[in-house]
């Protein structure tokens, strides 16, 4: 099992307009580095697409795409080519927000993490021990009063959450779905990037984070489905985010648009 990115290494505070203890725009280093290049993100994922309540989050294991390859990313500050492995979420509760990163001092309702593994390494477990092993894309989800769902991909997933309320329950997400469907219409050219560390004793720095500035808006009634999930003790699985950590002089980069 792979729990590391959900509980152990997320959560540097980021803000570009100030705020208590957070990185300000003068601290985020603006650089004109390349945009992220997405390959096979436009291809249908093979079925079945499985989502499981693992007691920490709703986790989707990503299959190959319909050309027999994985969806993968390059560019940005990524030290190599990284294949999409899994998707999971961090959320709050009916009266709290649950994103792990703060942008402009704002915590969002939900944060989606798309976990990628460097193609140099055979498994996620091996990659998580290497400094260039993992890359995670962070996408902020914002609950809005609207009743109308315009985000096709995420709504398909959120519609299935009632099937994974119990710990260790699984469900399949039927129909054609691409990685681009998960990203929706966010502008992927605007993002922050930094190297995050594990909290294991050796503090290996294995994750290159890419956190998009743009957020996805979803009806609040859809976001509310996360709050019904239960953990291994049958208690509400809420607020499954790690509190932001001190920056410790770690550089956070912000992509500037050329
Ligand atoms: Zn996570």
From TrEMBL:
Family listed: Belongs to the alpha-carbonic anhydrase family.
Entry keyword Zinc: yes
Matches recorded under Pfam families: Carb_anhydrase (PF00194)
Enzyme Commission number(s): 4.2.1.1
Keyword Cell wall biogenesis/degradation belongs to the record: no
Reaction(s) this enzyme catalyzes, per UniProt: hydrogencarbonate + H(+) = CO2 + H2O
Record keywords: Lyase, Metal-binding, Zinc
Functional summary from the UniProt entry: Reversible hydration of carbon dioxide.
Lineage: Eukaryota, Metazoa, Ecdysozoa, Arthropoda, Hexapoda
Enzyme class per UniProt: lyase
Protein name per Swiss-Prot or TrEMBL: Carbonic anhydrase
CDD domains linked: alpha_CA
Molecular function GO terms recorded: carbonate dehydratase activity; zinc ion binding
InterPro entries per the UniProt record, alphabetical: CA_dom, CA_dom_sf, Carbonic_anhydrase_a-class, Carbonic_anhydrase_a-class_CS
Alpha-carbonic anhydrase domain boundaries: 1-256
Cofactor: Zn(2+)
GO annotation, cellular component aspect: cytoplasm
């Amino acid at each position: 099992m792979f729990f590391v990115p959900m509980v152990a290494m997320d959560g540097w505070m980021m803000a570009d307009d100030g705020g208590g203890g957070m990185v300000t725009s003068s601290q985020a280093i603006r650089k004109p580095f390349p945009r992220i290049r997405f390959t096979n993100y436009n291809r249908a994922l093979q079925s079945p697409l499985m989502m499981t309540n693992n007691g920490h989050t709703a986790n989707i294991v990503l299959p190959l795409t319909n050309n027999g390859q994985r969806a993968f990313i390059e560019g940005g500050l990524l030290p190599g080519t990284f294949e999409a492995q899994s998707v999971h979420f961090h959320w709050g509760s009916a009266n709290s927000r649950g994103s792990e990163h703060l942008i402009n001092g704002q915590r969002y309702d939900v944060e989606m993490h798309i976990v990628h593994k460097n193609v140099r390494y055979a498994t996620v477990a091996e990659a998580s021990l290497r400094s260039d092993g993992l890359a995670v894309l962070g996408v902020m989800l914002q609950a809005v009063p609207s009743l109308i769902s315009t985000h096709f991909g995420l709504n398909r997933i959120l519609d299935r959450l009632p099937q994974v309320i119990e710990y260790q329950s699984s469900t399949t997400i039927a129909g054609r779905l691409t990685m681009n469907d998960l990203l929706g219409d966010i502008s992927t050219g605007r993002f922050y990037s930094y190297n995050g560390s594990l909290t294991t004793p050796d503090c290996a720095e294995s994750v290159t984070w890419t956190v998009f500035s743009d957020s996805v808006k979803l009806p609040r009634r859809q976001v509310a489905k996360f709050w019904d999930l239960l953990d291994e003790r049958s208690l509400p699985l809420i607020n499954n985010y790690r509190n932001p950590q001190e920056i410790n002089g770690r550089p956070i980069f912000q992509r500037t648009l050329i």
